[in-house]
Design brief:
There is one protein chain. By secondary structure, the protein is an alpha+beta fold. The chain contains 3 helices and 11 strands, in the order H-E-E-E-E-E-E-H-H-E-E-E-E-E. It has a single domain, classed as Roll (Mannose-Binding Protein A, Chain A), CATH 3.10.100. Strands 2-3-4-11 form a 4-stranded antiparallel sheet, with no helix packed on it. The chain has a 3-stranded antiparallel sheet with strand order 8-9-10. A two-stranded antiparallel sheet has the order 1-7. The longest helix has 19 residues.
Length: 174
C-alpha cells in the first residue's frame, strides 16, 4: 500500500472516530420516575408550552428554529449572553411579549432525570441541541461570567464568559 493511501486511510479513520463521538441517542429508563412527564405540560400549536408545575410558558424550540408539526426546523442561532438577552426581549410568540432568558433554577426544572444523552423531555422540547444554554443567573464572584445548563449526558451546569455563544430557550411568566 502506498504512503498516500495509508495517510488517506488514517485520515478517514480519524474523521469517523470524531463523528462517532458527536452522535447521541436519548435513552430513558422506565425504572426511574419521569421528572418532566408529558402530563405536566399543555402544548400549543403556536410553538409554546405551559409548564403546569412551575407556571412558566416556554418556547418549545431553540432560538433560530421554529415549530412545524412536532419538530423544530431551522438552524440554532448561538448567541453571546448580551445578544441572548436582546433576542428574548424582542421575541413575540403566541402574541406574547416580555419573553426572557430563564434563571438557572427555571432551566434546571426542565431536566429529565430519567433520561441520559438528552436529559429533557424530547416530545415537549423536540430537537433540543446538545449545546450549552444560557441562563440569566450571573456568577456571584464575577460579573463577567454567567451560569449555563446543558442537557447532554445526565445534564450539567457551569458558568462561562458572557462573550461565548451558546443556545437560547426563552421563557415567559404565566
Amino acid at each position: 500500500m502506498s504512503d498516500q493511501l495509508k495517510t488517506l486511510n488514517i485520515l478517514i479513520f480519524i474523521c469517523l472516530i470524531s463523528l462517532a463521538r458527536n452522535v447521541y441517542a436519548q435513552e430513558c429508563f422506565q425504572t426511574i420516575t419521569a421528572t418532566t412527564p408529558n402530563e405536566r405540560f399543555d402544548l400549543s400549536s403556536s410553538g409554546i408550552v405551559i409548564d403546569k408545575q412551575t407556571k412558566l410558558v416556554w418556547s418549545r424550540c431553540t432560538a433560530g428554529k421554529t415549530l412545524e408539526g412536532n419538530s423544530c426546523v431551522g438552524t440554532s442561532a448561538a448567541k453571546s449572553w448580551k445578544k441572548a438577552l436582546e433576542y428574548a426581549a424582542e421575541a413575540s410568540l403566541d402574541n406574547k411579549t416580555n419573553w426572557r432568558i430563564p434563571n438557572i433554577k427555571e432551566l434546571n426544572s426542565l431536566v429529565e432525570s430519567a433520561c441520559t444523552d438528552l436529559a429533557i423531555n424530547s416530545f415537549i422540547f423536540p430537537d433540543i441541541d446538545y449545546n450549552r444554554y444560557w441562563t440569566s443567573t450571573p456568577r456571584v464572584s464575577t460579573s463577567q461570567r454567567v451560569w449555563f445548563v446543558t442537557f447532554q449526558g445526565h445534564s450539567s451546569r457551569g458558568f462561562d464568559y458572557k462573550n461565548n455563544e451558546y443556545s437560547v430557550l426563552i421563557v415567559h411568566d404565566y
